[in-house]
Amino acid sequence: MLDQISVFGHGLAAACFAALTIWQFQRKTDRNHTQISLVAALALTSFWALSVAVEGAFSPIANFGESIRNMGWLLFMFVLLRNGEGRNQPNAVKVIYVALAIVLIGQIVVDSLIPVFAGSPRLVSMTAYTALVLRMLFAVGALVLVHNLYSISAPETRWGIRLPMASLAAIWTYDLNLFTITYLTQQFSVELNAMRGPAMACVAPILALASARNTEWTIKLSRSVAFRSLSLVAIGGYLLMMIIIATALQIIGGDYARLAQISFLFGTTVAALVLLPSGKFRAWFKVKMAKNFFQHRYDYRAEWIRFTDTIGRPGSESAPFHERVVKAIADITDSPAGILLMPDDSGRLTLQSRWNWQTIQVPARACTTRTVPFFEETGHIIEFDALRADKVEEIDPGAIPEWMTNDPETWAAVPLVHFDRLAGIVLLARPRINRTLDWEDLDMLRVAGRQVASYLSEARSQESLSEAQRFDEFNRRMAFIMHDIKNLVSQLSLLARNAKRHADNPEFQTDMIATLQDSADKMNGLLERLSQHNKARPEEPKPVKVAALLQSIIEKKRLLHAIESNQIDDLTAMADPARVDQILGHLIQNAIDASPEGQPIALNARRRDLSVAIEVLDHGNGMSSEFMRSQLFKPFASSKDGGFGIGAFEARSLAMAMNGRLEVESKEGAGSRFTLILPLASKLSDSELADERVA
């Protein structure tokens, strides 16, 4: 029964694929390499199915037909790949196809040896076992290629190859299951062999539908996918080698076969564990891979992502910026170490940073007078091995310092040029696997060097900007302090003038000493504010008794000028006493300066809705509306001779910092009224609560 199913199923598959071959051959389309290879693969599949139906599944002609069928489909995939948009694929992909083709050729050779060794059961068993392993290996490799061909195809054209790739995956998945079960059970599965033909017959309509949907497919190849594919093939080849050698040792080893197998497996495992983690071995492998398997040395997208990640890695645990600059350049060529030289204020190159290179001795004068002009004019990347061998032309010998060429570990110098200005030089140590720089290395280093130069220039600009901001902050702080000093000088001048008239008054002497002490304390506070190490911050607003604060200010100022107070309500405001004292100090001093001698100024405080209004009133010359609107609160604008124009600006800034504001009313010839508005404290006194109830 199973034999009849096998014959009928394989015969049906042969007829379906033969019809599909004829239809595909007679289609009125442009005959390209993809269609020709497809016709050949379909014809070879029909031949295999017919040979199984006629001669049996285990006949030599059936085994040969299976091998050339797989060869046909492998050729179809290879032509499909070459004719797609990714036709400039690296050699690694070609190696995968060549490796699988060699496996098929080996399979044909091994199958042909089975009748030759018919007289030796051991050799027949060994040959059949090897043929089975080769079939398993090919099925695995073919499935990897099918997956990669689909995954690397263009998204917009992936639908066109979905059906043929699914058909091939079904064919080789069935084969892999068949050979794996045979390997595990040590006998061929008659049932699976019988159903192989009907399964192939079911695949034929799917291939016919795929051929009707499209005549060409576009493939785009990824370098990383190709590398992974080659890695899988390499691993499979390694396992295959171990299996074949271990089997051979078992057959020819006699009594010591087991010991030979264990010794071989142990030795190969130890060799793999020793070589694979080795940095030198990985560097050698990477160089050989790039040289022999890929058209381009670098995966530019991956290199650029790695480069930008290294340069821009944030966080406190990352290396300093200049050290990351060296590492970003060194990683391009797998250099283990490097240093960065940058121009100082005089334009001479000095050591800026090291990365893994503590042994190189860099003199204080790290360049000659011609080094910087040479690199700015040419932008040459110096390869020191070629320079030592006098193989470099158009290089000014005097531009390269002797300490660079004398150190045997110096390998390359990469100038960092930004808009024809040398931002620095990265000196690279010799890589683990010594090699010469080719055109791709030079292009990558040149582009990366320009990018790094822009980063360095931006960092230097940020440093200059930060320095300018610190100077600006210092100047701003100095302007405020100079204004406060001017006020103190004015107060001391008034005190000295009044002392001439009241020096003999003991009460005046006591007040004068208190005023001098207060002025000295304020000047010490100004010096502290001027210091860049002063980190003190103003206190947060808190409930402050306004009446007590104003009485204290009046007591301090009454020796300088007459101050009247018509109304000071007992209110509580949310404020910082020090800042209120500073604001009123500015306003009172401005009022004193604006008032005629002997004309008192007024200081009042009253409630206004949910705020406290503190008024400073003078009867001076007043200000124009235009001045108040456009210049009053602008720094360095003043209506007084010798004025700094800072007082009103600073007073308003301090008021806003306490959630308050500063209002002004003035009229030319009638004086000015400045009103400090502060928020009323939420916790009111008992008298205020009583007043609130009465209101």
Describe the overall structure.
- The chain is α+β, with helices and mostly antiparallel strands and 695 residues long.
- The protein has 22 helices and twelve strands.
- The strands form three sheets. Strands 2-1-5-4-3 form a five-stranded antiparallel sheet.
- A hairpin with a 3-residue loop joins strand 11 and strand 12.
- Helix 5 packs antiparallel against helix 8 and helix 6 runs antiparallel to helix 7.
- The longest helix has 64 residues.
- The C terminus is likely disordered.
- GO terms for molecular function: protein histidine kinase activity.
- Its EC number is 2.7.13.3.
> Beta-strand percentage?
5-15%
Structure annotation, total helices: 22
Identify the quaternary structure here.
Answer: single chain
Question: Tell me, what's the shape?
Answer: elongated
Range of helix content: 55-70%
Major sheet size, sense and barrel closure: 5 strands, antiparallel
GO molecular function, one term: protein histidine kinase activity
Catalytic activity: ATP + protein L-histidine = ADP + protein N-phospho-L-histidine
EC number: 2.7.13.3
Organism: Parasphingorhabdus cellanae
